[in-house]
Amino acid sequence: MNWNYENGRIYSTDEKGELMCETTFVRKENGEVNIDHTYVNPILRGQGVAGEMMAVVAEYFRKAGFKATATCSYANIWLKRHEKQYSDILSEDARDQAVACRIDGRH
Fold it and tell me: I need a labelling partner for 23 at 20 to 30 A (CA). Which of 39, 51, 56, 92 fits?
């Protein structure tokens, strides 16, 4: 996949410009980031794309020096499952983060 990076968003589109997958995140007052949404186009679900996307996001956070939490349920679970591999990007608050994924009709 070709990844696009914007302020608060990492995503991929197909050759027609249709959104294939997306992660959005917001800066918190303490300078950390919160992953508030993940999306995978229904035609790609069940193929490991969400995990691939989260690895891209985690590496981006690592290079940027971000500490992260996740209110998105998928991202929250993924970060917990990969805690050892990405411990350097996890906020101290990540383990106790409440989950309340932003819903916008694209799930």
Answer: 92
Q: Directed axis angle between helix 49-64 and helix 73-81, to 10°?
A: 70
> What would the pLDDT profile of 87-106 be if each residue is shown by its tens digit?
999 988 756 655 555 555 44
Domain boundaries, the chain: 4-96
Confidence check: pLDDT of 37 > 90: yes
The strand pairing partners of 19, in sequence order, are 13
Cβ-Cβ contacts under 8 Å for 46 (sequence gap 6 or more): none
Domain 4-96 carries which CATH code?
Answer: 3.40.630.30
**Beta-carbon count within 10 A of 92 CB:** 9
Distances (CA, A) of 89 to 33, 53, 80, 83: 10, 16, 12, 9
- Full-model pTM: 0.85
Q: Residue 30 is which amino acid?
A: N
Distances (CA, A) of 62 to 23, 46, 59, 72: 16, 26, 5, 19
